[in-house]
């Protein structure tokens, strides 16, 4: 039996925190349960799920559909696309059967690569390596989630670049319907002993082919989201604060001066696992707190603010009145003075 291997490579970087990651999690479950009810897919499709942030790991090795168990997507710091491609290549070498003189191997693997931002690692060489070996051996579909995607990078990997303009439940569901239908259609083709190449038509209300090289602003200052990691002083559990960019002085845009600030979008507890998915060696950018708007209670102990900083540079929660506190990061006792001044803070890598 020739298998049709389908790989999902999912960006689980911190900018995905909250609704986007939840939507993708549901989307993957939706795809799998849909495929499992399809007789053609059940017969040929094998699936694998890889997650990448600052670290890349295989969540589900290549598995036949009926044996697939839902996996929980992690969250980590960084978007190491280069590492993800190298890891995917290894996974393909390890699990996909090649055609030899005696045996017909697996059908051409399909890869759905999800990303919501720009790579944070040195991806150039990894892209060259990938193209040299797999350009014609694997069908890669790159899916850019949201507005921060640098398609000029994804275009170097594949002409199949799809832009999903928003990352909410409705958009992701529409995308996953399309993926599901695409995999079924491919499994029917291979059932008839053909491999077809064309993409199924897209639901243009939600997504489109990213055809042109989109112009893209360079530099980290223009990011749409900034994230911070804190720890609860009382319970020591980590949490993430995610701010999204808003145009502050729109009227100045015609003179090309755009002033942005960032508004709080999500403050939620995260798993300790976050640190194992983060590349701690990567450069950590800073941001001045004056551009941040909005605060939150601690998601764990509901203390007044989740945005207190220790001299060690880390964030913690603070009840607003205690004179002393113990930093959950460096365990030093610190005294609080309400300075009200803005400060520079280490932010996530995105
Ligand atoms: Zn707390
Ligand atoms: Zn500290």
From TrEMBL:
InterPro entries: TerY-C, VWF_A, vWFA_dom_sf. PROSITE patterns: VWFA (PS50234). Gene3D superfamilies: von Willebrand factor, type A domain. It comes from the Bacteria. Residues 5-159 form the VWFA domain. Signal peptide: none annotated. Pfam families: TerY_C, VWA. SUPFAM superfamilies: vWA-like (SSF53300). This is Uncharacterized conserved protein YegL, contains vWA domain of TerY type. It comes from Acinetobacter kyonggiensis.
């Amino acid at each position: 039996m020739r298998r049709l291997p389908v790989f999902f490579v999912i960006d689980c970087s911190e900018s995905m925190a909250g609704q986007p990651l939840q939507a993708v999690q549901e989307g993957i479950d939706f795809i799998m349960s849909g495929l499992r009810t399809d007789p053609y897919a059940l017969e040929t499709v094998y699936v694998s799920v890889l997650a990448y942030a600052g670290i890349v790991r295989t969540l589900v090795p290549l598995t036949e559909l009926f044996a697939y168990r839902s996996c929980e997507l992690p969250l980590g710091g960084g978007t190491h696309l280069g590492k993800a491609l190298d890891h995917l290549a290894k996974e393909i070498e390890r699990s996909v059967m090649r055609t030899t003189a005696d045996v017909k191997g697996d059908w051409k693997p399909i890869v759905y690569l999800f990303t919501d931002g720009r790579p944070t690692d040195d991806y150039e060489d990894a892209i060259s390596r990938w193209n040299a070996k797999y350009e014609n051996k694997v069908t890669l579909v790159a899916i850019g989630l949201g507005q921060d995607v640098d398609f000029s990078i994804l275009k170097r990997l594949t002409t199949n670049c799809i832009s999903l303009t928003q990352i909410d439940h409705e958009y992701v569901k529409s995308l996953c319907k399309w993926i599901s239908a695409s995999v079924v259609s491919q499994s029917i083709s291979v059932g008839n002993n053909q491999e077809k190449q064309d993409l199924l038509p897209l639901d243009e209300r939600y997504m489109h082919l990213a055809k042109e090289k989109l112009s893209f602003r360079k530099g980290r200052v223009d990011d749409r989201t900034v994230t911070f990691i804190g720890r609860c002083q009382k319970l020591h559990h980590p949490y993430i604060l995610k701010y999204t960019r808003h145009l502050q002085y729109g009227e100045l845009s015609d003179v090309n001066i755009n002033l942005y600030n960032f508004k709080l979008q999500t403050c939620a507890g995260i798993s300790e696992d976050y640190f194992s998915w983060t590349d701690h060696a990567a450069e950590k950018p800073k941001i001045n707190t004056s551009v941040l708007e909005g605060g939150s209670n601690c998601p764990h102990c509901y203390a007044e603010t989740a945005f207190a900083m220790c001299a060690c540079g880390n964030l913690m929660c603070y009840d607003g009145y205690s004179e002393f506190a113990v930093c959950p990061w460096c365990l030093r006792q610190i005294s609080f003075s309400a300075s009200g001044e803005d400060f520079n803070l280490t932010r996530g890598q995105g």
